[in-house]
Every structure is written in structure tokens, then in C-alpha cells.
């Protein structure tokens, strides 16, 4: 295996470990209601840009479980007189099955969309957007690893 293939593999494995929540996982923590607020989608912030928001309505917190959540209330019409709400936070423990997912749930007689994801700051987007980086890594691995077999030896 060539040196460049080994280096690529090491970088990919480190990135995969980070995506899987094994290294320093953090989650966004915030709550917005209605059209106003910084927690709602589209969520166009990163861990640096949130520090510029007046009043610091969005924070980043360490998450020991490695799992983040995003919950959107009122997905089937207004949740109440103030509109729908978006809540992002850390899960205290991982789901029993270890699967990332989104599902409709009924919480306090309101239909909500609850998304669970594993990885650093993964609750910025829905898990389907989070999978894009994993697919990219899988693609790069299938392209670069077979090339290492043709090192010319």
C-alpha cells in the first residue's frame, strides 16, 4: 500500500471516528418559537458564528452520550397561539437501537418531528443531511483504497 493511500486511510478513519461521536461530541442547544428566533430552520450558524448573536440564544455544549436531538413542534399546523417551536439539545443517553432517525411523535398533545443523530454538532441539520458526509467518505474509500493495490510493485 502506498504512503499516500495509508495517509488517506488514516484521515478517513479519524473523520469516521469523529462522525460516530467517539471524540469530543458537542450539540447545539437552543429553542425558538414562531417565525422569530435563531434556532429554527434553516439553521445557518456554526460553532463560531453563534458567538456573534446578540444575547447568545444558541450555545454549543459537550454531549457525553454522543447523541444530539432536534425537535420541531407544530409540524401539522400551529402548535399554539405563538406558532411552532424548534428545540435542539443533547440526549442524556443513546437510543437503545443506536439508529439515527427522524419520526413524528406526540408530545403534550402536539405532533412534533423528533430527529436523533450521532456526531459532533449533528443537530444542525436533519440526519439525512448528516448522512451526506458519510456517503462521501464511503465513496472516497472505494476510490482510493483499490488504487493502492496498483503501486507499481
From TrEMBL:
Keywords: Glycoprotein, GPI-anchor, Lipoprotein, Membrane, Signal. It comes from the Eukaryota. Residues 1-21 form the signal peptide. It is a lipid-anchor; GPI-anchor. It is found in: Membrane. GO terms for cellular component: side of membrane. GO terms for biological process: regulation of synaptic transmission, cholinergic; sleep. InterPro entries: QVR-like (IPR031424), Sleep_regulator (IPR050975). This is Uncharacterized protein.
Amino acid at each position: 500500500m502506498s504512503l499516500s493511500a495509508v495517509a488517506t486511510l488514516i484521515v478517513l478513519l479519524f473523520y469516521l471516528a469523529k462522525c460516530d461521536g467517539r471524540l469530543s461530541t458537542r450539540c447545539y442547544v437552543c429553542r425558538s418559537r414562531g417565525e422569530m428566533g435563531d434556532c429554527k430552520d434553516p439553521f445557518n450558524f456554526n460553532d463560531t458564528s453563534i458567538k456573534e448573536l446578540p444575547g447568545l440564544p444558541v450555545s454549543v455544549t459537550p454531549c457525553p452520550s454522543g447523541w444530539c436531538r432536534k425537535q420541531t413542534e407544530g409540524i401539522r399546523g400551529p402548535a399554539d397561539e405563538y406558532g411552532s417551536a424548534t428545540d435542539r439539545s443533547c440526549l442524556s443517553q443513546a437510543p437503545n437501537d443506536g439508529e439515527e432517525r427522524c419520526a413524528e411523535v406526540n408530545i403534550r398533545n402536539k405532533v412534533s418531528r423528533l430527529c436523533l443523530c450521532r456526531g459532533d454538532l449533528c443537530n444542525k441539520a436533519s440526519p439525512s443531511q448528516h448522512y451526506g458526509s458519510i456517503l462521501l467518505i464511503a465513496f472516497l474509500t472505494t476510490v482510493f483504497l483499490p488504487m493502492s493495490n496498483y503501486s507499481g510493485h
